[in-house]
Amino acid sequence: INRELAEEFGGKLSQEEREAILGKTDYDIWSNLKKRFNMKPSVEQLIEMKKQRFLKNIHQVKLVDHFFEFMLAAYNANYLLALASSNNRAIVDKVLEKFELMKYLKVAISGEDVIKGKPDPEIFLKTASMLGVKPSNCLVIEDASNGVQAAKAAGMKCIGYKSATSRNQDFSTADLVVESLGELSLDIVENLLGDK
User: Fold this and answer.
1) Are 142 and 159 in contact (CB under 8 A)?
2) pTM value > 0.85
3) Which parts of the chain fold into alpha helices (H)?
């Protein structure tokens, strides 16, 4: 959606540029693109257009393969679960509602709930605070380089997930990198967190 919308207003993004915006807040993305390509709509209008297009196509959104099984295993093992997404609140809420995820999560934060987006650690530090746990006791699963950087800057363990859209990104600072969530297990979580 970001790429299509950007192109409508004269913004041509390379594959590297599209990957570089993954994990950033809508405000960060659209304020930069508006300035760079001298786009006519306001940042707020661009964000609203993106939001409306996403919500209109919510029926096409699917969970990542193996996500639900892994989340359920962690939930049943009494891990505290949270979502810290750079997306806007309306999109986060719609996805949570569609897949009935809130019953498993203690906290769900959007990009609108923080001042600085990823790679700044604010979103993860705020999430840990709301969960009432130390950042060093947290494990983040991230599919974007900006998110991996944010998690590590927050002092958290991080698993980098190389998705179809982020396969070429730099996950070198992650504690573990996987190409499928099917590779994950609670043993891996326990090994990464230690006795925490």
Assistant:
1) yes
2) yes
3) 2-8, 15-20, 26-37, 43-56, 67-76, 89-98, 122-131, 145-153, 186-193
SS3 for 110? coil
Instruction: Characterize the bridge pairing of strands 107-109 and 82-84.
Output: parallel
Q: Contact 111/26 with Cβ under 8 angstroms?
A: yes
Using alpha carbons, list the distances in angstroms from residue 111 to 19, 70, 104, 106, 118: 18, 24, 20, 17, 9
Of residues 164 and 83, the one with the higher pLDDT is 83
Per-residue pLDDT at 195: 64
The pLDDT assigned to 98 comes to: 96
Contacts of 153 (CB under 8 A, 6+ apart): 119, 120, 121
Instruction: Evaluate if residue 196 carries a pLDDT over 60.
Output: no
Confidence of residue 17 (pLDDT cuts 50, 70, 90): confident
